[in-house]
Amino acid sequence: MDKAQLKYLQMKDLKEQLQINLLQVFEDVNITNEEHILLGCYETNDVRDKVLDHMCDVIIKTVDEAH
């Protein structure tokens, strides 16, 4: 396995662990958008999951750039 593949796997593992940790923080938070509200669906986690995924990407990119 070359350095690029190893770094990819490390970043993938880091993102997965970060998502788990952030989800623990946000698991009780219900984030909805206007479309969900108009449809009367208040229990969806789609928006929350997108926010968490984006947060993980930003954090990992910031940490990666610092190294």
Short recap of the structure:
The chain is mostly helical and 67 residues long. The protein is built from three helices and no strands.
Helix and strand layout, with pairings?
Blueprint: H1 3-26, H2 34-38, H3 46-66
Helix pairs in contact: 1-3
Please characterize this protein's 3D structure.
The structure is a single chain. By secondary structure, the protein is mainly α. It has one domain (3-66). Helix content is 75%, strand content 0%. The chain has three helices and no strands. It has helices spanning 3-26, 34-38, 46-66. Helix 1 (3-26) crosses helix 3 (46-66). 3% of the residues are buried. The model has no long low-confidence stretch (mean pLDDT 77).
Count of helices?
3
Radius of gyration: 15 Å
Number of domains: 1
Task: Give the CA-CA distance, first to last residue.
Answer: 21 Å
Largest sheet: none
Mean pLDDT: 77
Derived from helix and strand composition plus strand pairing, the structural class reads: mainly alpha
Silhouette = elongated
> Helical amount among residues, as a percent range?
over 70%
**How many extended strands?**
0
The portion of residues forming beta strands comes to under 5%
Order of helices and strands: HHH
